[in-house]
Amino acid sequence: MNIRNVWRLCCVSVASLFWASCGSDTSTQAPVPEVNDLDSPESSSAEPASSEQSPTSSSSLESAPVSSESQPLSSAEEGSSSSIDEPGSSESLESSSSKESSSSSSEPLVLARDSSVTCSKIDDYESVCGSTTTSSKLSCMDLQEFLKADTAVSWMTFKKWEDDLEKCGAIEESVALYGVIYNPCNSYRTVTKLKCSDGLTYKWFKEEDGVVYTSEEEYNKAKGISSSSVAESSSSEAESSSSSLPKDYVQCSEDGFALFADILAEVQKEIYQRMSDALENPDSGLTDAQKEFYEDLLDRENKKLKGNLSPYYMDDYQYDIMYTSLKYDSKHWFNGYIAKTYTCVGGTLKTNEHYQEKYDNILKECLNIINQAAERLD
Fold this sequence. Notes:
Number of strands: 14
Low-confidence stretches: 26-105, 130-136, 175-182, 238-242
Largest sheet: 6 strands, mixed
Mean pLDDT: 73
Strand content: 15-25%
Number of helices: 13
Order of helices and strands: HHHHHEEHEHEEEEEEHHHEHHEEEEH
């Protein structure tokens, strides 16, 4: 009896499940013709019934994007974004175009030295050593001839020649980089220049109110800035002995042009004398190791230090000074020439102050190198 009841309940359960599944199939299959009717020409007759049955019919969905009340937040965002983005972009385009038009329509720059000459700025490539790709640079020999000539020139021009001669590149500063010879003078930088209507290219110095100046001297002259204080302190003899010269002009001649190695040779003679005196002085306080170190540095025959680049290179090797750079060994290195003497019209021969300053600095640097090496022997 119990088995029958269990069997009957199982049959009823299966039957109920079957009918329930059949009911769900009919409910899900009912909308299918409506979906298919969307693509058919007769869908218009079915649309009113479907719209009445369901508020989310195809007609309501189609009209939803058009309605501004259905999604007020999103529509407001879209409106605000459109009102911000589009005019903003147009304004930026207008501003950029206005800048371009203003720059393109702006009048050319006027050369200060000649108002009839108009110029435009260009980018040029200049060697880090000073030469340019579009204009030639005065050579070391040219600058020496100018400084020897005893010609009346402005003090600024005279100093410019001196500065250019000191860095004229007489020494080839090549260094080994991972087995490759690298010449720093082959590196270039971008500089601004002026291409003018007279067919010439000028250096760019300063621009004010559409007027361009090619040098500090030209600018100071136009602005009435006097450099008499500089000229007076540096060329008092020239001014006192040549009152007929224009203001801030000098008439001097330089000579005895020396390389870094030439000044070092003079420094070596001074160091030789000092070290010799220290070795002969019983009260110098030198240890035996230091005395031996000093003696190894001295070239007794020539009364100088051994090696032409000692004490930077402490050996007796004679380096080719035209191809050996001490750029990374000395803080006072220069690759050009410095005049040792000068004389101005009506004056006497004098030692160039810049030469003396360079000599003193190199001497101090060399003595420090030797003293530090001697101290390490203790």
